[in-house]
Amino acid sequence: MANIERQQSWGWIIAVYVFLAGVGGGTFLFSFILNATGMYQEVARIGALIGPLLVLIGTFCLLFDLGSISRAYRLFTTPSTVLASWMTRGSWFLAAFIIVGLLYALPAYGAFQWLPWSQTSGLGLGIGIVAAILSVLVVVYPGFLFGVIESIPFWNTPTLPLLFFLSGLDTGIAVLDIIALSMPASLGVAGFHLLGIGDLVFLILLIITLGAYIEVVRQSGVTASASIRLLKNPVFIGGVVILGLLIPLAMVISSLFVYNAPTLYTMVGIIGAFVLIGGLLLRYSVIRAGVRITVR
């Protein structure tokens, strides 16, 4: 006999881990792009360091959730599981990105200028390209980690990796916005408008993808429909849809027509905070709405 029950294994700790992996990877990716194109390099310099550090904190959350050092150790010492387990692959992605990302970021700081490369040297650029590729894998892989769990149809959809990927990029821009607010002269009004265009694009794509994700899942059967019912709660509707998506979208559009610097900076700060809160609550909502089929 088949029964439907809500998954109880993963909660806030995993949500924080997935969130930090996404926002850290997204922050680094955009910082590398800004560095490589010679734009807003002071903001990019800080973002390139913050990205791997956020992923490192997220990794500690994952290790804490595993609850055992030996279990974490086995993720790196069982090569046979690399091809079969997204958890194992993800652990290697995280470790590689943290190491390579820091190798790219650190030479920009005085204490590490003894390293035999810089971010603009050939070797430094090569390290940055590898780190950027790894950052994309770090952002997208949690979607595959959840997506291969066939007993939870709400997660078992190819739309989920895209949803997490777009959210990671959107929150990454939000972090750069917040970094830039500590040095507004480095961007100026035009620079904040440019970041705002990026915010706008990813918010629109994220809203479309979230709607598609819900619609695809809704048609996937009784178990998935039960997940949709769980998803329709104040945290998701108020925290994700309204606070994390619709309000930032309206404010970003408005901010593109604001040229008064103090007003624009205030709007950018609010947008960044709301996007980050919405990104965290999105992951928590997706995780907690997971409903599995059990056979008794």
Description:
With 296 residues, the protein is mostly helical. It has one domain: Formate dehydrogenase/DMSO reductase fold, CATH 1.20.1630. A two-stranded antiparallel ribbon has the order 1-2. Helix 5 crosses helix 6 and helix 6 packs antiparallel against helix 10.
Give a topology summary:
Elements: E1 2-6, H1 12-36, H2 41-66, H3 69-77, H4 86-105, H5 122-147, H6 159-181, H7 188-218, H8 222-231, H9 234-255, H10 261-288, E2 291-295
Antiparallel strand pairs: 1-2
Helix pairs in contact: 1-2, 1-5, 1-6, 1-10, 2-4, 2-6, 4-5, 5-6, 6-7, 6-10, 7-9, 7-10, 9-10
Number of strands: 2
Look at the structure and give the CATH class.
Mainly Alpha
> Termini, distance in Å?
5 Å
The number of distinct helices, counting runs of at least 4 residues, comes to 10
The sequence of SSEs as H and E is EHHHHHHHHHHE
Largest sheet features? 2 strands, antiparallel
By helix and strand content, what is the structural category? mainly alpha
What is the radius of gyration? Answer: 20 Å
Strand order, main sheet: write it out: 1-2
Could you name the CATH topology?
A: Formate dehydrogenase/DMSO reductase fold
Q: How many structural domains in the coordinates?
A: 1
Just name the CATH architecture: Up-down Bundle
Would you identify the CATH H-level superfamily? Formate dehydrogenase/DMSO reductase domain
Could you tell me the mean pLDDT? 85
The outline comes out as globular
Strand composition percent: under 5%
Share of helix, binned: over 70%
Question: Stretches where pLDDT falls below 50 for ≥5 residues?
Answer: none
